[in-house]
Write a structure and sequence with these properties.
The protein is 40% helix and 21% strand. The protein is α+β, with helices and mostly antiparallel strands and 75 residues long.
């Protein structure tokens, strides 16, 4: 699971290594359609990624400042 997450983040990462979590989730589903964070005891992908201590997570506000966008990168 760690390798799958890591390689997916790498596939989507910008020049600083950050990838938008929404895109990571979409690509995970394409790579492995049966992947579900609930199978690992987490309701959502963010807590699952956070629990591994293998990735950095950053919240950014969008240009309008109304929503927070979550980005992740390999440590």
């Amino acid at each position: 699971m760690i390798h799958l997450l890591s390689s997916t983040i790498s596939d989507l990462a910008d020049y600083e290594g950050w990838a938008f979590l929404g895109d990571v989730g979409s690509l995970l589903m394409k790579k492995q359609p049966n992947f579900d964070s609930r199978n690992y005891g987490f309701e959502k992908l963010t807590p699952l990624i956070n629990s591994t201590n293998k990735f950095e997570i950053e919240q950014r506000e969008n240009s309008k400042g109304k929503t927070k966008l979550i980005y992740v990168r390999n440590k």
